[in-house]
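Researcher: I'd like a candidate sequence for this fold, 471 residues long. If you have to choose between options at a position, lean toward the conservative one.
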């Protein structure tokens, strides 16, 4: 399958991301999108990223546009710097997917590209652009990471997390050093854990059982008050409480939105439904999965009411801020791209101010629990065949789903989401970034959610095998 746009950017096998294809997509982006005459380029720590970034920089220069080299930086740090400069940006990253894949994330002068922008890029692609053999003169932007750290230290202050021991699971996250800096800057004692010399595809939305056990062991061994991490390009957070229990990304979204005083929330249909039960959230917009859809809903909200305190978040925890919020020490400007730091700093700061652990903040939330995982190595077309069959045939759904209750409603906004009596939900969809079939579940208790997930992953595995065998 050739590289294509998914839920967030262009993705594909490294072998297919040739110089010709990368040049074509970069030149198409420059032709189709506003970039202000300059484009910043950053990349993650996977082995293939520097070479792809070099091709991107050459293509930008060859087009007569000024290339700005940011280096290995988090995606939200690059987006922040580009917005500050009023220019475009391209991030070379495959995010959380395996190292044999990579991709490009594009930003205009106003932020992350929209679905119409994607269509315009594709329409402008396919031309025989000349391959640049030498690099044009470029601007160095090695201060990009430091500005990202300063954003949070200035808004929250040097005592926001004073006295807390915070583990930083570094692995191959491009934010691993910046996380140490920001937590130290907020007064915490950061403890570096498991720095890797090779790329590890950490998916904060589907944390494996062995990883969860390791997180809990680290919290106990190092007497941690919390533990944090991110995915590869650091636009998705991971936060554990003092016991090493992972706080789900969509729960972090609710906690962060409350801490910031948001009154409008935009989040995909895969997110925990508790958001609709929270006092103070005047409006909740449920969208298709993917940050472009969340951003579109946020932009529509601001067009109708420029003073709306609107935020967005995804089930993976990536948080988008649509208004100038106030931290304990200063203003936190809007940043409408997925961020990993805000959804861990805001809950931790709120918990410390309240004199409790971050896990205690969950006690006054509605009792709705989610779980998610995916089957890897599943062709997208195969997933679509099964999901379309289930969506169209009530008898097939009755034979497939095992939620211990009758079906009450179906939602086809993105994949197939089925609600059952008693508050159980099972949601199936093909991944937009990789050959995976994802399963999201929700239930009134954590144990029920895990049971529901295990049951339907097993049923999904067998059903997909049957579909494949019939083709």
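Model: Candidate sequence:
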């Amino acid at each position: 399958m050739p590289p294509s746009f998914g839920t967030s950017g262009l993705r594909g096998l490294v072998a297919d991301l040739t110089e010709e294809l990368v040049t074509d997509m970069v030149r198409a982006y420059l032709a189709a999108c506003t970039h202000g005459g300059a484009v910043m380029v950053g990349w993650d720590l996977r082995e293939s990223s520097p070479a792809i970034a070099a091709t991107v920089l050459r293509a930008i220069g060859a087009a007569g546009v000024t290339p700005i080299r940011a280096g290995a930086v988090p995606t939200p740090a690059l987006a922040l710097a580009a917005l500050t400069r009023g220019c475009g940006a391209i991030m070379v990253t495959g995010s959380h997917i395996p190292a044999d894949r990579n991709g490009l994330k594009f930003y205009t002068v106003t932020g992350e590209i929209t679905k119409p922008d994607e269509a315009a890029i594709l329409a402008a692609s396919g031309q025989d652009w000349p391959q640049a053999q030498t690099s044009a003169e470029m601007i160095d932007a090695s201060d990009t990471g430091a500005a990202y750290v300063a954003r949070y230290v200035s808004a929250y202050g040097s005592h926001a997390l004073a006295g807390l021991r915070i583990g930083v699971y570094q692995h191959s996250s491009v934010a691993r050093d910046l996380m140490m800096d920001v937590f130290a800057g907020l007064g915490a004692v950061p403890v570096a854990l498991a720095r890797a010399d090779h790329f590890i595809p950490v998916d904060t939305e589907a944390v494996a059982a062995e990883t969860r056990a390791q997180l809990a062991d680290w919290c106990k061994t190092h007497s941690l008050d919390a533990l944090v991490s991110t995915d590869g390009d650091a636009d998705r957070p991971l936060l554990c409480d003092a016991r090493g229990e992972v706080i789900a990304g969509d729960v972090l979204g609710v906690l962060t939105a409350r801490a910031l005083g948001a009154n409008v929330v935009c989040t995909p249909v895969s997110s925990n439904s508790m958001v609709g039960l929270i006092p103070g959230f005047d409006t909740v917009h449920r969208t298709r999965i993917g940050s472009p859809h969340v951003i579109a809903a946020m932009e529509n909200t601001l067009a109708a009411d420029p003073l709306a305190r609107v935020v967005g978040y995804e089930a993976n925890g990536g948080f988008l801020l649509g208004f100038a919020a106030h931290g304990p020490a200063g203003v936190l400007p809007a940043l409408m791209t997925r961020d990993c730091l805000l959804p861990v700093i805001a809950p931790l700061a709120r918990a410390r101010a309240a004199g409790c652990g971050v896990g205690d903040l969950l006690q006054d939330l509605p009792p709705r629990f989610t779980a998610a995982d995916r089957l890897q190595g599943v062709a997208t077309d195969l997933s679509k065949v099964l999901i379309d069959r289930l969506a169209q045939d009530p008898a097939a759904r009755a034979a497939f789903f095992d939620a211990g209750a009758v079906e009450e409603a179906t939602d086809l906004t993105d994949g197939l989401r089925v609600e059952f009596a008693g508050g159980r939900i099972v949601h199936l969809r093909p991944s937009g970034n990789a050959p995976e079939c994802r399963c999201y579940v929700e239930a009134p208790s954590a144990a029920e959610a895990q049971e529901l997930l295990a049951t339907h992953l097993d049923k999904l595995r067998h059903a997909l095998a049957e579909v494949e065998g019939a083709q």
